[in-house]
Specification:
heterodimer; A: 88 residues; mainly alpha; Non-ribosomal Peptide Synthetase Peptidyl Carrier Protein, Chain A; B: alpha/beta; Isopropylmalate Dehydrogenase; 2 domains; 10 strands; 48% helix; globular
Chain lengths: 88, 319
């Protein structure tokens, strides 16, 4: 895997920033998605954007819908994606 | 291909849009569910999103559904607009995920026309897309609905008001009161203050802004009230021979009014803020409503409403 954890954090900050019309620097690692004002549609937008971006690194990269409800913060989402890529 | 009266009324409405309005219409759906396409082109798919499916999850899981495929046709430039009478949340989700938001738009909103006697309809936004809204979202809805009113109805400087529980600036929800201050200080919007629920039909303003929860409740209350009044009126007219004779005199004059007040006349509501045109029709849409929704979609595409909205939110994107 060639994507580091900090790369994933940066990707989440950029993509969620675009979705929420916020600066990437506002997307801090400790923030919950609720704190950031990300509703369920925004999170699915993020998931689709991450899947599209990371498919280049890991063919067929997919985030399971069943796992989404546990991903309540930026840190949990980054850790989840990193673990998925590591296992691929 | 969704809706309470699908597929027969949907297909008939599409056929009428071709025959009566000269539009080019394609049907998107599983061919076995569409049945007789009445000579129209069918873009086949294998899945449908049910009215009670979760909007976000269903759009992710059912990638070969009619809603997702229709949104992709617009995204790919193969259709100018999509119209659906199906699951409202899933329609919005499929349009949002496939067409994408216009740059700068935080959330799309539903803009629905409210009839006025002898003048253009009032545009109410949001009519149901966002149950919770920030003040900044309400300001964006005002900017987009104002641009929509100008493009759709030719009103040069639409008057814009917030829906509240009183006309004073101190009335309204916390987000509404904050939006009042922002709108009052904003250039390019003809903000006139608050209006109350009694000011929706007929309305003294061209645009009414509210959160999606309040907007949807207000819209459904109006629809239910109008249906109730019509039902009571018909019952009174049918009471005896004398009232029936009076009805014979009144009906020719009442019918145009009923047409003006009917949601079928307007066909549907547009999702504002997406990079494409999506018309959400009532779940109980009949063929007339579908024909008018398709006509509205074509007219909005011809008027370049998406580009107007694009430059409304980001003036630097003007070509």
């Amino acid at each position: 895997m060639s994507v580091s954890r900090s790369d994933i954090l940066s990707l989440v900050q950029t993509q969620l920033g675009e979705i929420l019309e916020k600066s990437p620097s506002d997307i801090v690692e400790d923030a919950t998605f609720a704190d950031l004002g990300a509703d369920s549609l925004a999170l699915i937008e993020l998931v689709e954007a991450l899947e599209e971006s990371l498919a280049k690194e890991s063919a067929g990269f997919h985030i399971d819908d069943e796992d989404l409800e546990d991903l309540t913060s930026v840190r949990l989402a980054v850790d989840y994606v990193a673990a998925k890529l590591q296992a691929a | 291909m969704g809706g309470d009266l699908a597929p027969s009324e949907i297909v008939t409405g599409a056929r009428r849009a071709v025959d009566e309005c000269g539009l080019n219409v394609v049907l998107v759906g599983p061919p076995d569910l569409i049945g007789d396409p009445q000579g129209l082109e069918v873009v086949p798919c294998t899945e449908v999103i049910a009215m009670d499916d979760d909007p976000g999850a269903s759009v992710r899981k059912k990638k070969d559904s009619s809603l997702v495929r229709a949104a992709e046709l617009v995204r790919d430039g193969k259709a100018s607009a999509m119209v659906s009478a199906g699951n409202t949340g899933a329609t919005m989700a499929s349009a949002l995920f496939r067409m994408g938001r216009l740059p700068g738009v935080v959330r799309p909103c539903i803009a629905t026309p409210l009839p006025n006697p002898d003048r253009a309809p009032t545009v109410m936004a949001d009519a149901g897309a966002n149950t919770e809204c920030t003040p900044e979202m309400l300001v964006q809805f005002a900017q987009m609905a104002s641009a929509f009113s100008r493009t759709r109805y030719g009103i040069e400087r639409p008057s814009v008001a917030l829906l509240a529980n009183g006309e004073e600036p101190t009335k309204g929800s916390p987000a509404g009161k904050e939006a009042f201050k922002l709108l009052a200080a904003l250039d390019g919007i003809n903000f006139v203050g608050n209006v109350e629920g009694r000011d929706l039909i007929p309305s003294p303003v061209d645009v009414v802004i509210t959160d999606g929860f309040t907007g949807n409740v207000a819209l459904k209350t109006l629809e239910g009230s109008l249906k109730f009044i019509l039902k009571m009126l018909l019952e009174v007219i049918g009471t005896n021979e004398e009232t029936r004779a009076a009805g014979d005199v009144l009906f020719p004059h009442l019918l145009p009014l009923a047409g003006q007040l009917s949601p079928d006349t307007y066909g549907g509501a547009m999702l504002l803020g997406l990079d494409g045109i999506c018309i959400i029709s009532h779940g109980s849409s009949n063929a007339t409503a579908i024909m008018n929704a398709l006509k509205q979609g074509a007219e909005l595409a011809d008027a370049g409403v998406v580009d107007t909205l694009r430059t409304t939110i980001r003036p630097d994107q003007a070509s």
